[in-house]
Amino acid sequence: MLVTAAHAMPAVAQSPGVDASVEAMSDERRRGISWSDGDPALRLGLSVPVTNGLSIESAATGLWGSTRHGGADGVIDAGLNWTRQLGGWRLSAQGRYHMFPGASGQDYGEVGAVAGFLLGPASIDFGAHYAPHQSAIGGDNLYLSIAGAIALPNTPFTLSGHVGRSSGDADDPARSARLRPDGTYRDHGIALDWYRGRWFAGLRYSGTSIGGPARRDAGDKLIARAGFSF
Questions:
Q1: Poorest-confidence range of 13-17, 50-54, 102-106, 149-153?
Q2: Residues 56, 47 contacting (CB under 8 angstroms)
Q3: InterPro entries, from UniProt (predicted)?
Q4: What's the angle, vertex CA 135, arms to CA 43 and CA 97, rounded to 5?
Q5: Are 69 and 106 in contact (CB under 8 A)?
Q6: Contacts with 2 (C-beta within 8 Å, 6 or more apart), sequence order
């Protein structure tokens, strides 16, 4: 999947307005939980504009037999993103469907909205993402977050951080543990990213309030990443 996408992306990225990227990371973590069993991962991303403010967003990430996602070899995230600027506010709405090649009955979808405000070189974002009741996740899932970032003056570095909270109903506790291994929990993180032209790299700290055996793939961890866009 990743090799085929890598060969196709350079040609697609030559189209006007199309953004593509390749990123390697020491662990694929989402909302403080490892999706790659703590192993390194590779992601290919693509954004294709449709109309003013509306774009098709997709990404393919190698998971190499993820235990959390039924032995999936990867995850493909595909959907639409709508963005609009209102004064100092940047509003966006998304719809995403997560597909897991190499696994059965693991696919699920979610919708989200983010309201962000710019203050000079700094920004703050308020987000809400909701996955309605689906058998693949054993119920529903609501994620609320606050994130902030600031570009450090006269440097190629950006400092950012976030806090989030995951909650929801559990129709099937075994399946709901996939996204919430300890029930309702909080996650937090801090990142320092370097940008130079088309290249980027960074270090990220990730932590959660999850305890007990479920903390195995959700404990404190420092994650490295590097990549480029074209």
A1: 13-17
A2: yes
A3: CHP02001
A4: 30
A5: yes
A6: 42, 44, 60, 62, 74
Taking all residues of the chain, what is their mean pLDDT, rounded to a whole number? 93
DSSP E strands in the chain: the ranges are 19-25, 29-30, 33-34, 41-51, 54-66, 72-86, 89-99, 108-119, 122-134, 139-151, 157-167, 185-196, 199-208, 221-229
AA identity, residue 212 = G
Q: Which domains, from first to last, does the chain contain?
A: 2-229 (2.40.160.40)
pLDDT tens-digit series, residues 51-103: 999 999 999 999 999 999 999 999 999 999 999 999 889 999 999 999 999 99
Q: Are 174 and 147 in contact (CB under 8 A)?
A: no
Read off φ and ψ for residue 49, nearest 5 degrees. -70, 140
Give this prediction's pTM. Answer: 0.91
Token representation of residue 78: 């595909």
